Amino acid sequence: MTATDHAVELVHAAARAASDKLAQKIIAFDVSEQLAITDAFVLASASNDRQVKSIVDEIEDKLREIGAKPIRREGERDGRWVLIDYGEIVVHVQHEEEREFYALERLWRDCPAIELPADVVSHEK
Length: 125
Description:
Blueprint: H1 5-20, E1 24-30, E2 40-46, H2 49-65, E3 72-74, E4 81-85, E5 89-95, H3 96-102, H4 104-107
Parallel strand pairs: 2-5
Antiparallel strand pairs: 1-2, 3-4, 4-5
Helix pairs in contact: 1-2
């Protein structure tokens, strides 16, 4: 089983939105083989709390434009690690310190990466 075409479409839209707001280390994993609750994870990081919020807002706006509404959102008050659950995909936007500490990409490294569109740029420091 692999991520659905619709899930990949949502991943691409979320990654583009994160890129538009200068997110760092944007990657996506197909977790459908490992988890029954979602098809894909998108990970992105930011250098400060304000940028985390800006990235989250842009992702929600862009996904809303294509008809996707979040089922749940966690962590927005602290602004250090915001999780947006769309059912088919889950987006994690983390402050770079949380990203390094929790190292989600290490936890999910056995899952296949989802190729992101060429216009998605990971803005490294």
